[in-house]
Amino acid sequence: MAEHEKITMAQAFNQALRDAMTADESVLMFGEDVGALGGVFRVTDGLTAEFGGARCFDTPLAESGIMGFAVGLAMNGMRPVVEMQFDAFAYPAFEQIVSHVAKMRNRTRGALSMPITIRIPYAGGIGGVEHHCDSSEAYYAHTPGLTVVAPATVADAYTLMREAIASPDPVVVLEPKKLYWSKDEVDLDEVQPGIGRAVVRREGTDATLIAYGTSVPIALEAADAAAAEGRSLQVVDVRSIVPFDDETVCAAVRSTGRAVVVAEAPGFASVSSEIVARVTERCFHHLAAPVRRVTGFDIPYPPPKLEHLHLPSVDRVLDAVDTLQWDDV
Amino acid sequence: MPSHDFLPSEQPVQLLDQDGRRVEDPKRAFPSDEDLLRAHEALVVGRRINEQAYALVRQGRLAVYPSSYGQEACEVAAALVLDDQDWLFPTYRDVVSIIGRGVDPVETLTLLKGDWHCGYDPTEHRVAPQTTPLATQLIHAVGVAHAATLRGEDTVVMAMCGDGATSEGDFHEALNFAAVFKAPVVFFVQNNEYAISVPLARQTVAPSLAHKAVGYGMPGERVDGNDVAALLSVLGDAVHAARSGAGPSLVEAHTYRMQAHTNADDATRYRQDDEVAAWQGRDPLLRSKAYLTGRELLTDERTAEIAAKAEAVATVMRDGLMQDVEPVPGDLFEHVHATPTPQLREQAAFLADELSREKVS
Ligand SMILES: Cc1ncc(C[n+]2csc(CCOP(=O)(O)OP(=O)(O)O)c2C)c(N)n1
Ligand SMILES: [Mg+2]
User: Residue whose CA is closest, atom 21 of ligand 1?
Assistant: First the structure.
């Protein structure tokens, strides 16, 4: 295999945007501070310089405006990629997303499609003050018409962003802020599984950990720790929340007979609850124990000094695994 | 009212020029010596707060600080023109206004330290929680003002935001509601020329932000945001009008964000040093000091007294923020609902159990 430079997840997103903009002139990138500044997380760094201010640009400071503008641009042949600066600052755009972006294809019987990519830096673990650490995936996943992805690796950041931009439908790309600076040596030309596919990140035989986005590294770490104690944990990276890959996830769970879902969003009425329901419905007779969850508490995202108590930890994952009725076997 | 009565003046109102010389403006009352001395003291304290906060960020005691360095005249005037029964609705940048209204400095900085969200009781000094989701607080201000009207209270609400926030839909909705309900609100926009990296020219091509008022049927005025005398006068008039039943108005202060958006921002990526340097000479403190010294109101003794007061506030900030407040895990579950749900009680017990096992092992 050829040697490849190590790049960060932020750079992988950046490269995906660059390559998509090169490949297709109708791709536009816009939002708040995405021009000269290159985005507060530098994901759009250099795009205005390379493609000009008509392709990558700052808008007036208004998320509803950004989203509605994208709807109109998409109606007239453009392929907009918008950046919502932080998870909680996408809420002013919610009306446009739910009432228009998600429903346009359905309302018009397919006459109008919305090939829009909504980039949302999401989740916590970065010591951010209030409104900067929300895990808002459930709102989007609950909205029919939206595709929702949450990459956890540098390679997936590239692939899923390229697929999102190429998609004929609106895709919410949840970019895990905590992992923006994580580095990996990747061959961007290597084809990764696309949207709609989950991936087994680590083989294991005793139980399956199911995670996405920021929780994947926690699950992998927990699997390492468990291995040291003689327990073999499999890790499935969901990657694509909508569409959900029932096949891969359920095959994995059937192979071990036990499962724990890990996600940092509050657990009540969440993506993690959906995963538990789907797995239970499909794998009931293969399960040796009820499927457990390790999630954030059902509270507003806490202040920096308390967030470590809220977020799923390796210990909490291992504790949950311990409760999977091992003695009854 | 004919719409031209709503129009702001051609140039921002100025009562003290850059060198601290008085500018005549027949339409505006010049503040009393006493008021200007009080404002100068607040300016010196405000500057000290900004400097101290900056130092605390560098020492890792504050998670982040959006500084109002250079904008202190706006910050202090907004607090000084209000009475006790009035309300202030601040943004993340308005720490100096909040402290100016009497809120404890350490409680004010709780949010930016990261111990909790809002660290003070908003009802105590009538200061709403600092708001980060841009412009969303403006419509709350209108609600508070309207409730005051319904309850027959003599309350005016000062609703603050930045230039960038005027692009948000909530800005429009707030101004329209205020005008329609004739609510006693003063919308106070600190135009510091940037929204993080984005210059005002990308937010609006209106002649000024103050001109926007006309479209809602309320007066707009623009004022030199580094001239504390003009700010006291213009904001004071706006508060007086609101109090006397004339309804809301919009005041735009022209100022400049001297430092980066926050300590986490790199302003060299989007603006030139000489642009910043040009504003150095327009420092609000230099101006009020020159005026008061020229009038022999600022004696050495008074200057020393003011410096001591500023130092005292800085000491309170240092002492408070240097202390590590041991986070209370159970706080996570407090005040989510008036009565905790059964699920939250379970989760609180889960955490308590987890922590007690950690202690044992
Ligand atoms: C709804 C919303 N969108 C985006 C942000 C992120 N953000 C925080 S401050 C800021 C710039 C605000 O500029 P301005 O209103 O001019 O106030 P200033 O910071 O200059 O005081 C942005 C975009 C936010 N806080 N809220
Ligand atoms: Mg600004």
Answer: B162
